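Bug report (template v2)

What were you trying to do?
Predict the complex of my protein with EPZ.

What happened?
Run completed; filing so the output is reviewed.

Input:
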Amino acid sequence: MERLIIKGGIQLHGEVNCSGAKNAGLPILASTILFDDPISIFNLPHLKDISTMLELLNSMGSEIRFEEEDGIEIDSSSIKKPEARYELVKTMRASVLVMGPLLAKYGKAKISQPGGCNIGSRPIDFHLAGLQKMGAKITTDSKFIYLEAERLNATNFEFPKISVTGTENLIMASVFCKGTTVLRNCAREPEVVDLINFLNSAGAKIKGAGESVIEIEGVDKLKKVGWSILPDRIEAGTYLVAGAITNGHVRVKGIESNLLEPVIQKFREMGVVVNSGKNYVEVDATTTELVSCSLDTEPFPGFPTDMQAQFMALNSIAKGVSMIAENVFENRFQHVVELQKMGADIQLDGHKAKIVGVSNLVGSSVIASDLRASASLVLAGLVGKNRTEIEDIYHIDRGYQCIEEKLNKLGAEIIRQPAI
Ligand code: EPZ
């Protein structure tokens, strides 16, 4: 397996560009199934998960043409095989996002059972309950979920718990339903808003973007449009943590501060100076003695679960004691045992972690487990004495475009060692 070798102890300085958001690109790519024309999409990040979604759409019959500047033209108007096969769903759970659009456009879908992943069982019962309420007939066997719907009907559905892709799936399923669909307890994440804005630009009639109640008035068809994907607030937040954890000064360009408010607040509570302007956010920790800061992860607009691991690494070397509560996923502390290998003082108690700051971490050989846990190990490696080796780094490549190139541009010394 490829690994990253990181030399610790270097202050990071400089600017890095933020890429397009993975978690906006995935639903928007899936939603191209709803269109009768080719769609141009720009600012797509070069990530494993995005190529997996493109592979999935292509396997169903979409035609994809790559254009310059991170753009593609995708024509999903003649899907021949509405099926998401096992090896793609296993690689990327977000493959379930094709269910809603396939049912809305073609009246059927066959999806490999998504199974769990490292951060939890990740059920999709809310997705299925909503689609069933809209009239889909759903059967399952050990391998697949089979969905059929002569026609999906507008309905009222309340999510038992906020679900990002659940909200996205039901929005896409409702776009052509005659009448008005009302979805309650919806996810308010910026990536959901980007999907809604994209669909509305193509003629959909969706109200309540960013709110917990979303109303979708059915339309007959969507028109040909182009779209540029929202910047990735989690990637941006990760590079800002890299600046803070190394007592450096880092500016992330191509991001607006309104996407990062709960994260910026926590930086400031830890003593990090945060400035922002048109299209950038920067941290200056050159004179900062990091102070521990507790946090609870919550659905947007709360502190994002996708930044929890990164702030655990930051708290590991801050002065004082912090508590981190992971309230979204049931098992999102895979990074703890690896950070402990590097000398972090962390105790777990159910979904809470107590972190006692230590003066420094020590480089070690650690194993990446999931996307954001891997990022926290890279951040710890930036300050770990001597060098840190991270195995299984394909997790990182799923969500970060050339992470070592961007960090090395800020002064880090990271090399990617090919699989031996
Ligand atoms: C999305 O996952 C993101 N992925 C995740 O990002 C992110 O961590 C998560 O939302 C929370 O913000 C994409 O957008 C592709 P959920 P999703 O449905 O939609 C439970 C990353 O790092 N639940 O909001 O799968 C679920 O178990 C990834 O980029 C059900 O019980 O998450 C969890 O506890 C990781 N039944 C909670 O709800 C369901 O039918 C939130 O899950 C659906 C969800």
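What did the reviewer find?
The mean pLDDT is 95. Residues 230 and 378 are 25 Å apart (CA to CA).
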